[in-house]
Amino acid sequence: MNDTRMEKLNKATATLKDKLPEVPEIALVLGSGLSQAFGIPGEGVTIPWSEIPGFPLPTVAGHAGQFWAGEVSGKQLLLQRGRTHYYEGYSIDDVVFATRLFALLGIKTLIVTNASGAINKDFSAGDLVLISDHINMLGTNPLRGPNLGDLGPRFPDMSTAYSPRLRKLAKEVAASTGISLKEGVYLATLGPSYESPAEIRAFRALGADLVGMSTVPEVIAARHAGIEVLGISCATNLAAGVDPKATLSHKEVIDTTKRVGDAMRRLITAIIGRV
Ligand code: HPA
């Protein structure tokens, strides 16, 4: 089992490497609607996931499925446009397939973004939030199964999963560019239904500020492989029940990412220059 998983990853990595103009230093994952809002950062190479053998292809509306590689703020960036979610029915190995390609390409820094619901009552729809830590409520872990020892240890530490160094840097960049950046704990649930108000009250009691359906598997897989991680969430809506009169919709999520996509792009572009 180990060998087949590694063989598949190595084959995909070799194919991707051949298509890349330069060795990337930083990977950036853009989630729900954010890849649309962010756009293509400039001249570079686009690589559809369908051209990479073994790559799991996504199904949800609003999620592109390609890499873009090129220079951003003087750094070689590999941009992942769209992601694979566990709720789509993929295996947890497939959910972190791209993350493991980053590790095998030698990428040392991963910037993950997502859309989330705001549990913290001090947050508003449209806030950009630095992820300080996570709570994994997916009911699984991407490291389940025989350890991929070529990538990392059996029991990796998650004490500083969201790099204190990169968080400090992100705060400095936000302050100097005048972009407001809050900070909070992200809780991952399976989805795809949004949470019930009772679940949101429970998650708040557990210490969560944000809720979403992604990111945590990728961060665990990245930390397993020794990649430094920065997470930035766009709180696209108040979580269920926070505003008792509101209902939740994917349209609101996409509309908010469109509204704050430019601030997110400016913030991340400036961060990349200083990583
Ligand atoms: N819940 C879960 N995932 C989400 C939400 C939410 O309220 N908003 C955006 N992604």
Q: Which helices and strands appear, and what pairs or packs with what?
A:
Elements: H1 2-19, E1 26-30, H2 34-38, E2 44-48, E3 66-72, E4 75-81, H3 92-95, H4 97-105, E5 109-118, E6 127-136, H5 164-177, E7 181-188, H6 197-206, E8 210-212, H7 216-224, E9 228-238, H8 250-274
Parallel strand pairs: 1-4, 1-5, 5-9, 6-7, 7-8
Antiparallel strand pairs: 2-3, 3-4, 5-8, 6-9
Helix pairs in contact: 1-4, 4-7, 5-8
The structure holds hypoxanthine (HPA).
Hypoxanthine is lined by residues 115-117, 194-195, 211-213, 236-237, 239, 248, 253.
Could you please describe the fold and organization of this structure?
- This protein has 275 residues and is an alpha/beta fold.
- It has a single domain, classed as Nucleoside phosphorylase domain (Rossmann fold, 3-Layer(aba) Sandwich), CATH 3.40.50.1580.
- Helix content is 34%, strand content 24%.
- The chain has eight helices and nine strands.
- A five-stranded mixed β-barrel has the order 5-8-7-6-9.
- The longest helix is centred in the C-terminal third of the chain and has 25 residues.
- The termini are far apart.
- The mean pLDDT is 93.
- The site of hypoxanthine has 13 residues, from β5, β8 and β9.
- Hypoxanthine binds next to β5, β8 and β9.
